[in-house]
Structure formats: structure tokens, C-alpha cells
Amino acid sequence: MPHSMTGFARIETQHPWGQLICEIRSVNHRYLEPSLRMPDGLRRLEAPLRETLRRGLSRGKVDANLFLKLEEGLTNAMAFNPQAAQKLIEMAQQINPMLAQPAPFSALDVLRWPGVLQTQELDQAAVDKAVFEIFGQAMQSLTANRQREGDELGQCIEQRLQAIAGLVVQLRERLPQLQEVQHSKLKTRLATLGVEVDQERLAQELVYLAQKSDVAEELDRLEAHLLEVRHTLKQREPVGRRLDFLMQELNREANTLSSKSTASETSQIAVDLKVLIEQMREQVQNIE
Length: 288
Known about the structure:
4-stranded mixed beta sheet, two-stranded antiparallel ribbon
């Protein structure tokens, strides 16, 4: 079954350093048009993330948003190193008895000593890894969402394919009768006019009329296109453009059928075909 180009995914993950949120939304578009929004601190990852989008999607207007919420004051927070402080105090206690007049030794003096207070910095490698993980999860969720919608679109298209096939069979079965009705109408009209008709000329006119109104070839092509649509729907690769082309071909045959129509029943079937084809065409616009 095909994939829809419409989908949405949202993933949240919590980490010791903060929260990551990834949202990806896609709608139908002729080509792949990705747009990424992310904090300036994550811009270094934009190129590989775009490549991930291109590998996973073929068509659609895609908006991907990354949000990073750091723990408040993380980059400026000071971490206390008790081991360094304890070692400094022990050393001071050993040195003080050696001094005649040891200077006062306060807690602030300990905190000022290098290594006792350390700036707690953000682990960029951990953040990068988490970004790629959450982006991959969001892509998987989006793909699954698009697959589900694609399955529904495929079912809707199949329903219309069945309806069109039924109309083709109906019209094919009625063709001999419709042609006979046309012949009878022509003969009745000539008889009403009281005109003496050359039988050979009449036979030629009847053959011409039959050829002009013969839509068997159009019906054959319609059936061939229906088979091709079903075959295309079973493909794994993106099929949206191929389906769009087939919709144009189906519509072409329906228009020819309408132009050849000489009976109200044929005209109505041609109209019904056009309606069904247009409904499929609208659905195909959203298939990748």
C-alpha cells in the first residue's frame, strides 16, 4: 500500500541535563521540501538531520521542530568537589603547627582553592546522541502515521476502482442493445419523413454510425488502466507521480467516451466515470 504525505509525530524525552522535544509535521507537496527549526546551540546537527529526512521521505512539505529545555542554570552551576576540599583541609592542618602565627583558614578560602568548585558544563556529546535518537524515533512515528493514512487512501481508491470496473462491464454489456436502438431510431425517422432511401446507402450510414459510437476500444483502455492502478498501489516505492499520470489517462478515456456518446445512458455512465476518477485524483494528490 502507498504512503500518505500527511502525518504528524511528537516525541518527548527527559535527561539529567534537560528535556528534548521533537515534532515533525508533513503535508502533500509535489517534491520533498524539508524545513528544520532548532535552537542555535544545535545548528551543528542541521546537515545530518536533513539527510535523515531525505533518506526517510521522498515527497511532502515537512516541518521539523526541535526544542531543548535545559535544567535552569545548568551551564553556570558550580559543583562542589568534597574530595579536593578534604585534601586541602588535611594539608592545612599538617602545615599550621609548623607556623608561628598561622593565618585564619575560612570556608571561603577552601572554596577559592582551584578544583574545589568546578563549573558544571553541558555534555555536548550526550546531547547530540539524544537529538539523533529522538529525531529517529519521531521519523519512525511519522512514517507509521503516513503508512496508516496511506492504507486508508488505498482502500478508498480501491472502492472507486471497483465502481469504475462495474460501470465498464455495465456499458460493455449494453453496447449491442444501444447500437440497435440507434439503428431503429434512424430507420423510424426516415420512415416518418416518407423519404425513399437507398438501402446500400442506409447500410453504409448504419456502419458509420456504429463505428462513430463504438467505445469498445475506450473500455479496453479503461480496464487496462484500472489494472495498472492496482499494480502500482502494490509497489513499495513512492508511486504518487505514477498514479497521478494514470488518473490523467483514465480521465482522457472518460472524456472520449463522453464525446462518442449518442445515448443518454452512455452519457450518464461517462459522467459517473468522471466523478469517480476525480475523487481518486484528489486522493492521489496526497500519496507519496
